[in-house]
Each structure stands twice: as C-alpha cells, then as structure tokens.
UniProtKB/TrEMBL annotation:
Keywords: ATP-binding, Chaperone, Coiled coil, Cytoplasm, Nucleotide-binding, Stress response. Belongs to the heat shock protein 90 family. It comes from the Bacteria. GO terms for molecular function: ATP binding; ATP hydrolysis activity; ATP-dependent protein folding chaperone; unfolded protein binding. ATP binds at E31, N35, D76, M81, S96, G97, T166, R328. The keyword Aminoacyl-tRNA synthetase does not apply. This is Chaperone protein HtpG. The keyword rRNA-binding does not apply. Residues 24-176 form the Histidine kinase/HSP90-like ATPase domain. The lineage of its organism: Bacteria, Pseudomonadati, Bacteroidota, Bacteroidia, Marinilabiliales.
Length: 552
C-alpha cells in the first residue's frame, strides 16, 4: 500500500470544501452520479473511435444504499481510472479531468458534464471516508482502491475488481445520517437525476404482495434518459408535450401552449417552456422553470437568468453554456447568460406571434388567461413591448378582439378630441360602469375592457410610448369633450336650463373631498341618457395611484 498527501493547497481547501462548497448538501449525489454518467459517456466516445473494443451498449449507473455499513455507493461501468489517473484527476484538486478530455475530443464529447469544478470532492461534505475502487478500460489494467478520510492524507492500493468501471463508496458521517434513509435518497435522485442520459438504477422495482411491499426481480430505473426537450419538435405530438408537463408538475391546470427551444449557435440551449393559465391576480407560482446542464438538474430558481416576466412560465431549460457552479450575482453579470436571456425573450415573442398568426381564433380564446403574462412582459422588457404590439389584443365591451392596428382603424374617425388625439375609451368594470358604457355606445363610441391588475400601468405605458393617444375611462368627463358626429341634429337643454338643473343633481352626489363629480347634460335625442355624472380622468388616476401605493 502507498500513502500520499494531496497537493499543497488542499490542506487549506478541504475544510472550506467540506462546509461551504455547496450550501445544499444534497448536491453531493448529483456530483457523484453525474461523474459516473460522464465516465460511461467517455467510454462510449472511445468505443465509437475504435479506441475501446469492449461492449458499451449496457452503460449504466447504480446507486446502492447499505444502512448497516452506513455507505452509499455509486457504481458505473464507464471509463475507469488507472493509479496514475487517480493521481492526476482525483488528487489534484481543481484539475478538471473533463476539461482535458474535452480538449482532446472537442468535437464529439459535448455531452460530457464538465461544469462542476470541484464535483468529486463534494462527497466529503457528507462522508467521513470516501473509497474509489476503479479499473481502467485500458487493456490489462490493475484495479486500484484509493481511500481518503477528508484529511489530505490518502492511501492507494491494488485490489481485485473484475469489471471495468468505478465504484465510489461514501462512508456517511454522523451529521449526515439523513442520507441513509431510503426515501431521502430517492427524493434527491428524483430531484437531480431524473433526466440523466444514462440509466440510473436504484434498488428493485417494488410490488405489493400479501399486504407487504416486496422487491420484484426488475431494476428500478429512476430516470428518463431521453426527456422530451432532447427530442426534435417534429417527433413530438401535443400529447407528448402534455405528458412531459405532467412529469414535471403532477398537479395543476393544463398549460395553454408551449415553446420548444432548440438553439445551437452562438450558444447551446434547448428546453420546453409552457404558458400556464395566469389568473387576474397572479395566481400562478413563479419560479417553476427548472434549469439543467446536459440533463443534470441545476436549480429551479431562475431569477436573473431569464427575464423577470418569464419566471411566470413553467418548463425546462438546458444549457451547458450557463456556468452552473457559481454564485447568482456572477450568473447575472455573465455575458452568456445575458445572451441566453435575450434570446429566450425573443423566442417567446416570436412563438406567440406565430400562434397568433396561425390560429387567431385559438389565441383569442386563450387571451384572457394569457394577457397578464404578456402585459407583465410589455411593462418590464422594452424589446418585448415592441414585439408584443403585433399580437396584443384589445378586447372591447362586445367581446371582440382587435390588434392595436385594427383598433386604431376602428376608432380613428370617431374618437378624437379637439387636439386630434385619438381617444381610447375603456372600462375597468363592465358592471359598475354599465350605464356609462351604454351611453358611450349610444353615441357610437367603442369601449375596450382593461380590467386586470396591470391595466393601469399598461395604460401609462401606452400613453408614454404614443403621445397622440389618450386613454379615458368611460365614466370620465373627457368623454363629453370628444368631437361629436354631426349626423343627427339633437335637441339640447339651453345654457340657463343647465344652470338651473345642475345644483339639483350635484346635491345628491356623494361628497368627496378629493375631487368632485361633474354633472353634464347631453342631448335629449331618443337614444341614451339625458345626463351623466362623471369624474375627471386625471384626478381619478391620481387617486387610484396613491391608493395602490398604500391606501392613502
Ligand atoms: P469534473 O467532473 O468537473 O471533471 P470532478 O471533481 O467531478 O470534476 O471529477 C474530477 C475527475 O475525476 C473527473 O474529470 C474524472 O476524470 C475523474 N472521475 C471522477 N469520477 C469518475 C468516475 N466515476 N469514473 C471515471 N473517472 C472519474
Ligand atoms: Mg464532476
């Protein structure tokens, strides 16, 4: 047996790694299992190049729990290591073997998960000792066992091992006993490993027999090696997308539509994003998008990685180009991440536009469930605003849908004020403002419904972007200032009559110290109400705004 000391820097590094490498200790399993997956993929690459003659068709990784021995073992039938390779890859901290391998097989090894830096050493977060028992794929290799207790000293010795591959045996420490529970382990495997590209086996499939759960003679594979996002969109049907959604979120409403992302230049990004139904008050769980790197789960909190409004979406993103083992603040400033983020932004807008064009009827049907999402995007992302103007829908009081352009055409001749501003009449509540809506309709005006929580902000945004347009709630005084159609000559009250009648109505209006009601008489033609009581649009908006900021 040989003993040795791991590189000088490690003495200082070890305690840090053990405690702080990942605040989330679960991650050790992801690291060790993904190394095992890498090892099998490396062997496949070698076989495909004729550099390895053995059979690689049955690549697999097995996770075993031994409660009595207090060990978790991860075994693979991958590339294995010689004693020299252990020295190189395991002993030299921060030496990423995957990097070197990638360098050598640049073109076809891009499936290798090499982004986790100190991955292997994360096993010491939960172990008092780690053994690596490994036999290299190289012909007539001697199997070796490396063993280390978390101090820089390690031992290495020759052992018997029949098959090529590696067993990583983690002797779980006292503080980490929770990982020796079958259910806990299953839960972590499901979280991090459920879409790994090589079969991962954990125990046997269970069945019920005489009221008891017993093992069947069949391996329990915990992962799906070809999840939907890795396939070509043309190979998938609607059901497949729905099924995959269910796999991600077993409960909840069906999504409205999905976007299958598939980019390989200038960065690699795949994924499927789903649009959930979003109710008026954001009754949707944010941060349901799961981020993967080559099918390894990384995180489900994607703030700073995708634009804020996209965190309302559900689904999966997978990119080996996102640096995954770094801090969130670093991620946010990373230029790749920024590019990816703006790309997703564009894709989402493109896809919505396409759905709108391909099947407008369906788009309109889903609009009410979708609009909050789109409005949120328009308010927070300038570029998205510009793109969304193609498919943003104005719904009028009759339930008809118009694009911005169409709507402008509709009201252009009839709804301008004396300064030639186009006036968009809107209602925030079709029931409360019913009589105003009816009165406006009688005059031949069209009214749009802007009744969700974001509408006031959106109105400000519209007006800010287009200075020749004004939004006026249907019960505001400005309605009366619209240029009226000259068609029918209608009888009106005289100025004196109005002066006499006004105080009568004013007297029954509720008192409000902030802004008063305006009594306005209209023509006395056969249609419509002869008189309206309104409030100033400007004053009302001011009041609404201060109410939203704290109910003053
Ligand atoms: P990375 O995966 O980023 O290279 P790790 O610390 O996870 O970093 O692993 C270091 C190196 O150890 C790997 O690159 C690989 O060469 C080697 N290694 C780890 N686990 C295995 C394994 N199961 N089979 C073969 N080699 C392994
Ligand atoms: Mg690794």
């Amino acid at each position: 047996m040989q003993t040795g000391k791991i590189g000088v820097t490690s003495e200082n590094l070890f305690p840090i790694i053990k405690k702080f490498l990942y605040s989330d200790h679960d991650i050790f399993l992801r690291e060790i299992v993904s190394n095992a997956v890498d090892a099998t993929q490396k062997l496949r690459t070698l076989a495909s190049k004729g550099e390895y003659k053995g059979d690689v068709s049955a690549a697999r990784v097995e996770v075993k729990l031994d409660k009595d021995a207090k060990t978790i073992t991860v075994s693979d039938n991958g590339i294995g290591m010689t004693a020299e390779e252990i020295e190189k890859y395991i002993n030299q901290i921060a030496f990423s073997g995957a990097n070197e391998f990638l360098e050598k097989y640049k073109d076809d090894a891009n499936a290798i998960i090499g982004h986790f830096g100190l991955g292997f050493y994360s096993s010491f977060m939960v172990s008092e000792r780690v053994d690596v028992i490994t036999k290299s794929h190289k012909e007539s290799s001697q199997a070796v066992k490396w063993s280390c207790d978390g101090n820089p000293e390690f031992t290495i010795e020759d052992v018997e091992k029949e098959d090529v591959g590696t067993d990583i045996v983690m002797h779980i420490n006292e503080d980490s006993k929770e990982f020796l529970e079958e259910n806990k382990l299953e839960e972590i495997l499901d979280k991090y490993c459920k879409f790994l590209p090589i079969p991962v086996i954990y125990g046997k499939k269970k069945e019920w027999k005489d009221g008891q759960q017993v093992d069947r003679d069949e391996d329990n594979q915990i992962n799906e090696t070809e999840p939907a996002w890795t396939k070509m969109p043309s190979d998938l049907k609607d059901e497949d997308y729905q099924k995959f959604y269910r796999r991600l979120y077993p409960i909840g409403d069906e999504p409205l539509f999905n976007i299958h992302l598939n980019v390989d230049y200038p960065f690699t990004l795949t994924g499927i994003l789903y649009f959930p139904k979003i109710k008026n008050n954001f009754e949707v769980q944010k941060n349901k998008i799961q981020l993967y790197s080559n099918q390894v789960f990384v995180t489900d909190s994607v703030e700073g990685i995708v634009p804020e409004f996209l965190t309302l979406l559900h689904g999966v993103l997978d990119s080996p180009d996102i640096p995954l083992n770094v801090s969130r603040s670093y991620l946010q400033s990373d230029s790749n991440v920024k590019k990816i983020s703006s790309h997703i932004n564009k894709k989402v807008a493109d896809r919505l536009n396409q759905i709108f064009k391909d099947n407008r009827e369906d788009f309109e049907k889903k609009w009410d469930d979708l609009k909050i999402f789109i409005e949120y995007g328009m308010l927070t992302e300038e570029k998205f605003y510009d793109r969304a103007m193609n498919f943003f829908m104005f719904k009028n009081a009759e339930g008809k849908y118009f694009t911005y352009e169409e709507y402008e055409k509709l009201i252009k001749d009839n709804q301008t004020d004396k300064d030639k501003n186009l006036i968009y009449l809107y209602t925030t509540n079709t029931e409360e403002q019913y009589s105003f809506i009816e009165a406006a309709k009688d005059k031949g005006y069209d009214i749009i419904v802007l009744d969700d929580v974001l509408a006031p902000h959106l109105i400000n945004k519209f007006e800010q972007k287009q200075s020749d347009k004004r939004f006026v709630r249907v019960d505001s005084d400005v309605v009366e200032n619209l240029i009226k159609k000259e068609d029918s000559a209608k009888e009106e009250l005289s100025w004196e009559q109005k002066q006499d009648l006004s105080p009568v109505f004013q007297a029954v209006c509720p008192e409000d110290k902030d802004y008063s009601f305006i009594v306005d008489f209209q023509d006395l033609g056969e249609a419509g109400a002869p008189m309206v009581i309104t409030r100033s649009e400007f004053m009302r908006r001011m009041k609404d705004m201060s109410a939203a900021q704290g109910g003053m």
